[in-house]
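A sample copied in:

***
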Amino acid sequence: MSQAQATGAFSLLAKRPQSIIENQIYRRQRSLELINALPKELDDDKQNETNHKTYVVIVFSEKAKLQQCQDVEKIIQQFNVLTTLEVLSKTEKYLYLSATTDNLLRFADESELIKKTVTGSMQKFNYHSVEDFLLSGMTANDIVRYCEAPVLIKDAIKPSLLSYIRNGVIEDLFPLHDYEYLEKFSFNWRRRSLPIEEIRNYFGSSISLYFGFTLFYTKALIFPSLFGLVQYYYSFNLSLVSSFYVIWTTIFLELWKRKCAGYSYRWGTIEMTSLDKPRTAYKGELKLDPITSKLTLQYPMRYTYLQMYCISYPVVFLCVTAAAYFALYQFQIEAEVLNDFGAESWLLYVPCIVQSVLISIFSWAYEKLATFLTELENHRTRSQYDRHRVNKLMIFEIVNNFFSLFYIAFVLHELKQLKYQLMMQLLIFQLVCIAQEVGIPLLAVVKQKFAKFMQKEIDEAIKHQVSDLARYEQCFFESGLDKYQSTYEDYLQMCIQFGYVVLFAAVAPFAALGALVNNIFAMHIDLFKLCNIFKRPFARRTKNIGAWQSAFELLSVMAILSNCGILYLQPNIKNFFVNLFPNTSDISFVLFEHLLLGLKFVIHKAIHERPRWVRIALLKADYESSQAYKNIKKLKAQSICSLINFRKRSKKS
């Protein structure tokens, strides 16, 4: 490389850290202009041969040598993946990966993707029977979806590249955004709902299930929001309020299971099991699997259990104890402020505000700790990993967010202070969420506006070295974006919000309305961030929201206990039970609480977790599979009989 070229490359890289996120709108518009400027006279066949769609980009580190980059390229080519290596400077080395439709279909067969057949059932894709999966109006190019192609390529090549990743030769590996497809997610005032199916086709089932759940939850919040308004103006009896929230939470969670089953069936993930592929971070030794008879990574479960029960949960207990102590210490400070400055002093608000801020800080710190502890446990699959991490998190978050509220309600018996404390904590929680959801995207958009006037063209030396300028610009810009981790934090916010809505609904009628308004904006902001602020994540397959379903159900059961407790603390209610049952007034409270639990159980049993059409479709798929197996056995038997008869005739002749 000449000195001028190196200087041009260096000058471009020098701007990268401070301008890469700021220039995303400019880059997108620039890339679309270059794509539209491609020569129109090229026929489709020639263009398909010369310009295959780039699905994945590998970014090499500064210490990667040219020979190592070429070795990586040769390894990948062994899987019939099309590659283009561009080494522009010591710090800019890219390997673009693409694949033909035929190769993607082979990968889909090896990965056992579930696809819809012409008979309407969902079956494992078979490369040798492509015609069985060609629905009306489809071609072979439509079988593998937008979200699946990058994952198929990554799953095929990544095991062979682990040594290069661990040694730091490969710095990053990510799929490129499809800017034309992203236009489907642009904000539209006329759109009444999120395009869940389009989100699934682009981001995969894990992210689309989060948006599907958020949309379903937000619509469900309409009912408690209206009920809360009526409750505020007409002062409903608290027994009616408790009964309403028992019915609403149960029906909401049961209907979501049905909705989720429909999603997972259509997306081919409903029959995922613990035998699915292990996590990338899973450690173990290669041993013969007793089920599949293949060499797979295995790790003794006794070590996982030892880590969980001897290290993880004792640490969790210490953190929970510390959170409870800080929650109680707030009341001691309030008592001292009250004695020193009186009941009219504005300083009485300070301990509550400080406690609300500390809750957010502790949640952030404990989330990192829970992730670290779960990593040490070395769970095999992603679903197992998520379940154990959520379990740790929910134990802490319930104490961190709600312990002080339970203490005020059932120890101090101060319902006015409970209402004040709850609304203050909910307000701080929503403000923190808004700061995270709105602040970062808004700052990025403001910087992008300014960047349009400051952006310079790419150096001419770089332009002459790259084979596809639009692809290079897109890769250069996206490689500087932040990596999207998971939907973990988003589910956590929803779960805590759900707790504030239902646990003390008797004294907080407007909590549901505040959550409804917040979620309406949060959905669109989350989608905006995924499309503009982060790298495009590799799609993850999942059949449900996992441990978060159990977390929401736990909070719904706790809501019955807390609201019944608040009901019993009312003087008129307590006097009524004392007069009615002089010797067993406490038992009457337990009976009412068990009555509501029984109502929840009846609703749970009355609503099947899978819609009837899903159950019929699964039975149909099982029937077709058994019939196909019988036909194969029958054909094999007929072929053996034909061979025997042929040999007999040969001997006679």
